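ingest -> validate -> predict -> emit
validate: passed (alphabet ok, no gaps, 357 aa)
predict: started
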Amino acid sequence: MKLMLTGGFLGSGKTTAIVGAAKLLSSKNKKVAVITNDQGEQQVDSAFVKSLGIPALEVSNGCFCCNYQQLDNHLQSLSERDQPDIIFAESVGSCTDLIATVVKPLAKFKPDLEVVISIFADACLLSRIIEGKASFRDDSVRYLYKKQLEEADVLILNKSDLISSDELDHVYKTVLSEYSTKVILHQNSLDTNDISAWLNCIHGFSNESGRASMIVDYDRYGDGEARLAWLDKSFEIDAPKYNAVFVTRWIIRHIVNRIQSHHLPIGHLKFFIEGPSGNEKVSITTASVSANVKLTLAEVQNVKMLINARVESQPALLHKLVDDTIADAMQRFDCTMRLGKWSVFSPGFPKPVYRID
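emit:
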């Protein structure tokens, strides 16, 4: 069985690529399963993947390294229950040091498991970082981002269709000069041909020389994570006088606008909307240029909504911006919001179960 360990910063497009790969492999009669991961308990990505009928389990309340036993249990459970040919394990976007804390322990305890590390980087964001225009405010967050790139077997410059060919060429050459030993791809994860090229690459990847554990300053790493605010909130919208889908779109747009008005760098904002006729996922990242989202759900008076917000901010401020938007929507549209589970926090200091140098 193969494990495709997929990492990269928040909003880099990991889930989109994994879903595209799962669909393509399934069309070729390959069995696929997914393990999602998040610092929080309620995961938009997990709900989205499961809604597509893809076998999936989640490691929650911390990264793979700090919840190694949960990851191991899920690998065993999926192997026995679904017998997949390939498992994609998507690491939370604030995690690094995967080689020492995940890959090497797996090699020790599961020597028959073949592991390839794909690290995704948003080509637009990477272009801004190279130009010195990155939105990250704190050096420790930039340190975390760079360490993620360093541990790749395969480094994917994702969303390459969203920048010009000249910009992409500059990004590619810059990354190649710093990471000359990596396999570097650029792709549009909505393009089947690009997904196929990625799969061919990781299937043919050989790591005969082994992987060296990185040197990681855990104080800087932990500080980088602590600079990020995590908000998960689920609720139900009843809008008897209006279209609840329109209200949902208004809420998304105004949450984004409020965060941007405070000049807070967005790691990602993910929204999962469930209606009587179907489900839909919306993603906003630091590279997004517009908050005007389109939803294809039919007009209804009731929807359920889950928000995952990861923003470089203080948790209390992020919570206020989201709650103020929801309160404004209730007043503006004379609708009812039934609150479900919610949490807001900054990730705790990383404490891997194993770390093999």
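The domain at 228-345 is CATH 3.30.70.360 (Alpha-Beta Plaits).
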